[in-house]
Structures are given as C-alpha cells and as structure tokens.
Amino acid sequence: MQNDHQLSRRKFIKNSTGAALALSIPYIIPANAFGANDRVRVAVLGVNGRGQNHISGYSKLSNVEVATLCDPDNVILQKRAQEFTEKTGKKVKTEIDLRKVFEDKSIDVVSIATPNHWHALAAIWACQAGKDVYVEKPGTHNLHEGRKLIEAAHKYKRVVQHGVQLRSSEALKEAVKHMRDGLIGNVYMARGLVYKWRPDVGDKGSSKIPEGLNYDLWTGPAEMKPFSENYVHYNWHWYWNYGNGDIGNQGIHETDMCMWGLGVDTFPEKITSSGGKFLWNDAKETPELLTSSFVYPKEKKIIEFEVRPWMTNEEGGVGIGNIFYGSEGYLVVKGYDYYETFLGKDKKPGPTRKAGGDHYKNFIDAVVARDPKMCNGPVETAHLSSGLAHLGNIAYRTGRALTFDPKTEKFVGDNDANKYLTRNYRAPYSLPATV
Known about the structure:
The protein is of the alpha/beta class. It has two domains: about 5-165 and about 360-375, Rossmann fold; about 170-200 and about 235-355 and about 385-415, 2-Layer Sandwich (Dihydrodipicolinate Reductase, domain 2), CATH 3.30.360.10. Helix content is about 30%, strand content about 20%. It contains twelve helices and 16 strands. It has a ten-stranded mixed beta sheet. A six-stranded parallel beta sheet has the order 3-2-1-4-5-6, sandwiched between helices. α6 runs antiparallel to α11 (about 380-400).
C-alpha cells in the first residue's frame, strides 16, 4: 500500500509533467524523493529472454515492486504475468506498447531487455518521460545512439545503469584495483574472448505473423521486413537490422571489461577486423568468427577481441572472459565473478578471488539516492563498451583498416564507414534529433 508521501509524490509528478515526452520533472524532484518506506515501482520491457532475469532480480529487493510487464508478444507477456502471480501471489499490470508504460506516472523505473535495436530509443524516451533506466547490453545498436543516450541522461538528470554486471562483482573490482596499483606492472594489452556454441540456425524464410505478436511494435525503429522466424525471438542477434553479432551480444561484457581494466575512457584510433562465416550455410548475416584489434597509439595500449562459434580450445582456462597483459605478469578474468593472477617470468600464482555482486541493487540504491555516480555501470559505459563493438563490426563490414577520431567520433576521411555510425529510423519510432 502506498504511503502518503508516495501518493503526494505521484500526484506532484502527474500535475507537473504535461506532455509525456516533454518533461521537466528531473530538475525538480528533490534528492529525498523516495522516503524510507517507499517502494520503487519498476516496469520490465521485454520479457521473453533476459527480461526474466530482470523480473527475478528486482523481485528479490525489499524496496522494489515489479509493477508492469511489457512485451509486443502478448502470448509471451501473459505467460510471464501468470508465472509472476504463481511465484509471488501478486498481480502485475501488462502492456503491449512501451509508450503506454512511459505515460504511466506511477512507474519510477523502466528496465529494458528488448532486442538491441530498441535499447537506446526506449532508454531515451524513458529519460524524457522522467523515468530512471536500467538498459541491457549493448546500450546501443549503433555508435551515434550512445552520445544521444548520454545527452538524455544528463539533460533529464536520470539515473541510467548499463547491464554490464561484471562492474558490480566485488572480485573484479578488486582485480581492477590490483592493475591500477601495479600488481602486473604496465598493463598494455587486454584480450576479450567470446567462445560460445552457436549452431546452424537454418533459413526459415518468411511466414505469417503469429497470433498475439504486434510485429510493428517489435520492429520499432528498424527497417520493416517480412516476418520470419529467423528473427523472432532470439536469432535476431545475427541480423544487422536488429542485432550486432556476438561481439555486440555476449561480447559487450568483455569489451567493457577490456576498457575498464586498461583504464581507457575513450575510443581507439586504429581498428581492424577480419572474419566471416566458415561453418554454416544458414541465414545469419553477422560473422560467425570475428577477430578485431583496437589500437590506442597515444596511450600505448591495445585491445584484441575474438569471437569463435564452435569447437575450440580455451586460452588460459578462459572461454568467456578476459586476459590482461602487463610488464610484470598477467591477470585472467573468467566469467562474471572470478580472477586470478600470474606474476613474473615464472608465472608465479598471485592474488585470486571469486565474488559476485548485485547489479540491480546497485542501480536501485542509486535511484533512491538520486545519485547517478553510484552506478557501477554508468551511462557512459553504454556508449563506450557498445561503441567498441560497433567499431569492430564496421571494420569487418567495410573490409579494411579504419582510422577513427575519438573527439569527433567519426572515421577520418571515410564516408562509407561513417554511414554505419547511425541508421535510418522508421517513423514514428525515430531517434530524437534533440533530446
């Protein structure tokens, strides 16, 4: 039951907003907008895959109420709502159209687990509607969206958390501190590894839109194509119209870890990529195998990244993770919560630790405190770690080495490559020119 403070806050917001997408409330919500007894009301957008983890994660927090579930597939949506009631004994509101969620003044937070092509636009619209945002990785579908998302978060004073949960791991925070403190010397190279089992997906061709699916909403800002089971519900990852391949899927955790560990907070200047489809004659567009290099000549650092899709050896015991190389040793990150170190020429075992963290709780704590700086995965990581993957994909798609200007966020003298930095948006699902 809502207390008087919460009711008055909701009434204040409702009377202050005006048009749903032209709000000024972020400037006037006081720092203590949430009282000690207030529950943060969350709407989860996209509940087929990763969204299930969002529902579970928020449900464990005592000061959070999962109030609304939203998905353009009403069959999936009603199934998740029923499961929620069975698990919690509580009813949950359902919406097919995410815009209805943004118009709902009772919602404080939206948690976005849609396909990639919706991430940035949904997050920006949410910021404009006065909502705080948790957005799954990659925070963007193209590089231009990242800068717009940062602008929106800052303009509307929203708390935005990027779903790179490695940042909340106590073990990996410790690992980064070791590197900052010089445990492995001068850290000059990071290697990101994504070795995942990705089978032949075939080619299902076009077919009738399934009952219950609002395909227009599912497609959103992307180019409208005839419906195909190739896209809905998971394999959209392997089509440029919706996804970003595995470097932009699982790989964002590792691109983020590479940048965090190396201590770089800008984009590289030199990018090369090679790879392709060597195993399956299926309908995937993105490469099965991708090897990319990102060079920071001024910082004298390099990131190497590799995606492998099938049977392979591990490197240093790592199939999904990172290896950092320094002048005095190397540090291995395995998965989301474990690191180990090897020091000197003899590779003497050094500090090691396994410990996780709660990325959802970290986000909610920042929301309650009205302090974006508390976020372990701040909005800037959505731009940088996602952007690194985008740069690697662009180098692959152009088939040549590229030079990038981190200040202008453009490729130098390469109009063909620059075309990949954004996309044509399908009205009315258009990225605002000015947030």
